[in-house]
Amino acid sequence: MPTISIIIAIYNRKDELFELLGSLSRQTNRDFEVIVVDDGSQQTLLPTVENFNDILEISFYRKENTGPGLTRNYGARRAKNEWLIFLDSDVIVEKDYIQNIKKNIKTTPCDAFGGADKAHRGFNLMQKAISYSMTSVFTTGGIRGSKKAVSRFQPRSFNMGVKKEVFESVGGFSEMRIGEDPDLSMTLWEKGYTTAFFDDIGVYHKRRVDLGKFSKQVYQFGCARPILNQRHPNFVKPTFAFPSLFLIGYVLGFLEYFILRKGFVLMFYGIYTFIIFFHALYKTRNMSIAAMAVISTYIQMFSYGWGFLKSWFLLNILRQKPEEAFPKHFHK
Known about the structure:
The protein is α/β, with parallel strands linked by helices. It is built from twelve helices and ten strands. The chain folds into two domains: about 5-115 and about 155-205, Alpha-Beta Complex (Spore Coat Polysaccharide Biosynthesis Protein SpsA, Chain A); about 225-330, no CATH class. The chain has helices spanning about 15-25, 45-50, 70-75, 95-105, 125-135, 165-170, 180-190, 210-230, 240-260, 265-285, 285-315, 320-325; strands at about 5-10, 35-40, 55-65, 85, 90-95, 110-115, 115-120, 160-165, 195, 205. A seven-stranded mixed β-sheet has the order 3-2-1-4-8-6-9. The longest helix has about 30 residues, at about 285-315. It is globular.
């Protein structure tokens, strides 16, 4: 039976940590260890962890702030088991999460794996709307929520498993602070390792509840993508530029409308809005969520698209190095 170490890198988020540890304490299979690494939080997290000392095999470490990637590496070096499972601190897992991971590892040979990203029925309306915009086939191509959406799955750190020996062989997460998880997945591919998607290990990801914070987050994701394209040119896809084209098209559509008095381009955005609304309504069965999903989708596309455009221009036209153009994206 495969042995598992769960690593949680956390900065503040005391309440979310309690919920995550609570969901881990209810697992049907309790044969695993948990390593919580406090990345220099301003909140005191040790008492939260101590609540589970008698329920879980759990360890707590505190270190200076370096960002999520290096903090996960810190936890991985202290893990004693064969498989490392990385979970974001703002997720909740089902009670059969560990059981299903072990079952899949035994039946699906791989070096790393990931699972879906979904919204819990207890999440508020905005969280569900943002979850839709981040996982829908009409926004991100469904890459975070469906095995059918991709030919080769790219595990993300909110729900990622990797063999410890494989993780160590590639040096763990890189110096990137943003985009460090797709960077690791593509590094694994380049080294000849395999990844897999497990259908039944989805996590409930709370995400941002504030549209302003959500906009900043996906903007940073957009900035990171051209950096990743430079680091891993063999895995560049034309679809990465779709949000930028979406943004440019929207601006051109308004120019066409006000200058030429025609709305041909904007008509396509009207159709897209119609598709998003009714697809979200079909998925969520809630009119309010569907309406919010339209707003969060446009925020996602515009913010990511602008970040991608800015990063692409700085890196490819001005020929700046990624560390110069986006110093906050890298560990010092």
